[in-house]
Structures are given as structure tokens and as C-alpha cells.
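[job 4471] stage=fold_predict status=RUNNING
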Amino acid sequence: MTAPSPNTVQASLMRLNARAWGIATGLLLGGGLFLATIVLVIRGGPDVGQHLSLISAFFPGYRVTWMGACIGFIYAFVVGYGLGRIIGSVYNRLAFR
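[job 4471] inference complete, writing C-alpha cells
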């Protein structure tokens, strides 16, 4: 059995795990939207989250409510997962040409 060359080891360590990037980015975006929504719901007021509620144009069903926070988390996680997967895949293709 021969030892792997240093270049092979370095290349395998430098590769990004696209799935991990997708999950991390999804959790970051989903958690951010969830947290922002919950803060506005707890804060309350006469016109809660008038600017944040504009996201419903892209995420159908999203409202600045407790249930809307969960719906927004799912939408933002899916978008973030796709974005993270793309970033990881593009990096791996460009870095190892």
C-alpha cells in the first residue's frame, strides 16, 4: 500500500463540502429571518413589521406572526441551502481546474 501524495491530500482537504455549505447558509438565512420576525412580534405595536412583511411578495404565506416566522424559516432555509450549494460547487470547479 502506497501513501497518497502530498498534492492529493492537500487537494482533498481544500475541497468544500457543498452540502455542508448549503446547510450552514440555509440555517443562517432561515434563522435570521425567524429571529427578525420573532423580535418584531414580541415588540408589537400598531403596525408590526411593515417593511419585513414585504418579503411575502417572494415567500407566499409569510406574515409577521409566530406561524409566519416558521413559514419564513422554511422558505429562507431552502433559498439559503440552494445558494450555499451553488457557492460550494462553483468554488470546487474553479479552484481545481
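[job 4471] summary: The helical segments are 6-14, 18-43, 66-95.
[job 4471] exit 0
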